[in-house]
Amino acid sequence: MAELSVEMTYGQALFDAAVDTNQLEKIQQETNFVLELLKGNDDFFKFVTMPSIDGEEKKEVLQEVFAGKLSKETLNFLFILIDKGRIGHFEKIVRHYRSLQRAHSEVCAGVVYSVEPLDSAQHKKLEADLSTLLRKQVVLTNERDLSLLGGIKVQIEGKVLDASLKKKLEELKRDIKSGRQ
């Protein structure tokens, strides 16, 4: 169970850093490169995982081996794994990172309902905001729904975000009837 926690924790951290720096693909390529090197060279793997070797010495060797070949984010991630004694879990961490990246890169489609059609700028901004929120590329189609009275309603991945005037009026009516303020 501890291994699952390690792979999920560090895989998620690496994924979040890759998203924040807009380097999902680059970091995947770099971690694949490091993984192949670790798997293909038993002596190197033993060196970086051996507890009796000082972490600073391991980091110096990694710095020399990967100079100019890895981004600072990937190299810093390797240093963190060395410092925390988690470099032996690198393969499982990379596997979890890949699964997060696959889920992230999926495109999800949704529908935005509005009384009037959204203009191009509104449409693009809504797609961008929802893509950031859901951590997936969101593609929306716009359909008119005169019953909304105003505002919008978005249906995506089985969820509904209702920011319509009709919904707000229904909530106000319910609050008045129940005596809530």
**Pairing-aware structural class of the strands and helices?**
alpha+beta
Helix content: 55-70%
How many discrete structural domains?
A: 2
CATH architecture of the largest domain: Orthogonal Bundle
CATH topology of the largest domain, by name, is Peroxidase, domain 1
- CATH secondary-structure class of the largest domain: Mainly Alpha
Q: Can you tell me the residue ranges where pLDDT is under 50 for at least 5 consecutive residues? A: none
Residue share in β-strands: 15-25%
Topology order in helix (H) and strand (E) letters: HHHHHHEHEEEH
Radius of gyration: 24 Å
CATH superfamily of the largest domain: N-terminal domain of the delta subunit of the F1F0-ATP synthase
Main sheet properties: 4 strands, mixed
**Count of strand segments:** 4
Strand order of the largest sheet: 2-1-3-4
Distance between the termini: 48 Å
Mean pLDDT over the full residue set: 89
What is the helix tally?
8
Shape annotation = elongated
Report what the structure shows:
With 181 residues, the chain is α+β, with helices and mostly antiparallel strands. It folds into 2 domains: 2-103, Peroxidase, domain 1 (Orthogonal Bundle), CATH 1.10.520; 107-178, no CATH class. It has 8 helices and 4 strands, in the order ααααααβαβββα. It has helices spanning 2-20, 24-40, 42-49, 55-66, 72-83, 90-105, 120-134, 165-178; strands at 107-114, 137-144, 151-156, 159-164. It has a 4-stranded mixed β-sheet. Helix 1 packs across helix 6 (90-105). It starts with a helix and ends with a helix. 19% of the residues are buried. The mean pLDDT is 89.
